[in-house]
Amino acid sequence: MSAPVEFAVWAPLPERVRVQVDGAVHDMTRDDGGWWRAEVEAGPEADYGFLLDDGPTPRPDPRSRRQPAGVHGLSRRFDPAAHEWGDRAWTGRPLAGGVVYELHVGTFTPEGTLDAAIGRLGHLVRLGVDFVELLPVNGFNGTHNWGYDGVLWYAVQEEYGGPAAYQRFVDACHQQGLGVIQDVVYNHLGPSGNYLPEFMPIFAGGANTWGDSINLSGPDSDEVRRYVIDNALMWLRDMHVDGLRLDAVHALVDERATHVLEEMAQEVDKLSVAVGRPLTLIAESDLNDPRMVTPRVAGGLGLTAQWSDDFHHALHAVLTGEGQGYYADFAEAGLAGLAKTLTGAFFHDGAWSSFRRRHHGRPVDTAALPGWKFVGYLQDHDQIGNRAVGDRISASLSPGLLAVGATLVLTSPFTPMLFMGEEWGASTPWQFFTSHPEPELGKATAEGRIGEFAAHGWDADVVPDPQDPETFTRSKLDWSELTQEPHDRLLAVHRSLLVLRRAHPDLVDPDLSRVQVQWDDADRWLVVHRGTLRVVVNLADQSREIDLDVPASEVLFATGELPGIEQHTVTLPPESAAVVDTR
Asked: What is the pLDDT of residue 526?
């Protein structure tokens, strides 16, 4: 049934804007702020778009909630309040003490939809994680993509099921006790289907690695910032999401006294009070700057947490022996580098970075910032997908060392994160895939990818073509592996570790100043002190006798064969780890 509806769009650039609703065109009036408005009779699912100046083709709404015909097509009205939520008992969950599970909707299940993902939530509950983190789901051109080339930030990609399916997914997560974190991208827009520059001064004139920089502090940037912050609030308020992961915030160029991230954190904190549940903002930042997560009263930006790539790099280098590119400093430091990140979150804390050819980062005040404010992981979408062939660490490590890596992540003082399939050592790769409909863009993407890795010595024939549909298909999880050897044993290790975290407060103690590490590079062993517990790790291919600082009383967990205990000495089998109590 039709009813009067106000259509509004911020479009200070065109001289004339009209709205087309279900084929009928209506004039709009402009106010002094550059907003155009018109009241039009429209149904609850009316298709509409905006005609700019004398352009013959209607453009999608920059704040479109649904794009059934793709990012070049008309927008469709969507009422987020129409969903009957079943999560009224959900009071949210703080990030502290939680475990995050990162997944990509399109490759998590064979169907690649949000509704299909609901069918796998039971696995995540049994695994013991607390949050599901979705890679970007906003509207992008094509049928499959990582999601970081989105051009309509308010829409949910139709191939995933659109916004109604998204609400069903979040609702189902909450009813099963899982929080939802949404990965969002505010530092650039994708190369295809971006009509925002026809409406507004969305770009600032500069550029970053992925595209033109967003106009956050230039002329007419007030409404651009509003566009960004309103989008963040939309996910948290209308979609009941519990947190946002903010992509590559170091690429957000903002010269104002109040950074857009600080302004966003302020508004999210207000919304948290209004909705009565914790709301989380997690930054991906290459700056190694603890001020990102320092409270605003102490001069920080006040975000909840940030990723620690340094912990990943140190752990990866120790387990694999890789030392190329940005792994060089970590490989040279060895176990000392891993110990430094376990006790201080950052390796480059003002130290020299050979990869950057400069000093980088700033120390973390471990007395002021708890470890849970740093997200630690052995694998994530970037550290797999940005490898030449998208190979997981399970392709190069033994089952024993995979279990050792899991132990160090899940007993760390950080907020642990797993990447989908990591818990069973999935054999499927996770490769860089795109589906650009434009032949020239697809060709440029493929050639750029091959050229990038050719410069590092990779054979062009080995690097997968991102435009080949098989690259996408290969990246889908194979759920049949769950019950196969050795995958089922690694899954049992992850489940046991997550049970252990809940049973022993020392393993979720976020006080970095209390973490101590012993190690021996020559014999390849490491001991992490977690209160009265000792996380004992043997990276060598032969057994090791490791002297602890205190007598060991009980083995609480072992990745394989139980270690021997005699007073201060733990005898650990090759490539294994154990958690022992010293009480």
From this structure: 97
**Residues 564 and 538: beta-carbon distance below 8 Å:** no
Q: Which amino acid is at 478?
A: D
> Among residues 416, 395, 394, 553, which one has the least CA distance to residue 497?
416
Q: Which two tokens stand for residue 203?
A: 């770009």
Q: How many CB atoms lie within 10 A of CB 122?
A: 10
Report the C-alpha gap between 164 and 82 in whole angstroms: 9
Catalytic residue among 102, 223, 247, 509: 247
Q: Which residues, given as ranges, of the chain have pLDDT below 50?
A: none
* Total length of the chain: 583
Residue at token pair 């100046």: 53
Q: Is the whole model's pTM more than 0.90, yes or no? A: yes
Strand residue runs (E) in 22-172: 24-27, 29-30, 35-42, 47-52, 75-76, 100-103, 131-134, 138-139, 152-156
**pLDDT attached to residue 456:** 67
Q: What is the pLDDT of residue 460?
A: 80
Question: Which pairs from 200-208 meet CB under 8 Å and 24+ separation?
Answer: 200/10, 200/11, 200/12, 200/13, 200/34, 200/62, 200/224, 200/227, 201/12, 201/13, 202/227, 204/253, 206/253, 208/248, 208/251, 208/253
3 state SS of 463: coil
Q: Quick: pLDDT tens for 321-351.
A: 999 999 999 999 999 999 999 999 999 999 9
State the CB neighbour count (10 A cutoff) for residue 396.
Answer: 13
Looking at residue 449, what is its pLDDT?
85
DSSP string computed for 327-372: GHHHHHHTHHHHHHHHHHS-S-SSEEETTTTEEE-----TTTS-GG
- Please give the radius of gyration of the chain, using alpha carbons only, rounded to the nearest integer: 25
Paired strand residues for 375: 307, 415
Residue the block writes with tokens 């595209």: 211
The b-or-e profile of 15-37 (16+ CB within 10 A means b, else e) is eebbbbbeeeebebeeeeebbbe
Q: Whole-angstrom Cα distance, residue 45 to residue 22?
A: 10
Token reading at 292? 């990102």
Return the pLDDT at 242.
98
Name the catalytic one among 133, 183, 242, 284.
Answer: 284
Task: Provide the sign of the torsion angle of the four alpha carbons 389, 393, 396, 399, taken in this order.
Answer: negative
Residues 6 or more apart whose CB falls under 8 angstroms from that of 344 comprise: 363, 364, 366, 512
The three-state (H, E, C) secondary structure of 451-462, written as one string: HHHHCCCCCCCC
Closest C-alpha to 293, from 242, 346, 345, 369: 369
* Burial of 379: CB neighbours in 10 Å, binned 0-12, 13-18, 19+: buried
- pLDDT, one tens digit per residue, over 340-385 is 999 999 999 999 999 999 999 999 999 999 999 999 999 999 999 9
Could you tell me if 36 and 75 are in contact, meaning their C-beta atoms sit under 8 angstroms apart?
no
247 is catalytic: yes
Residue 84 CA to residue 87 CA, distance in Å, equals 9
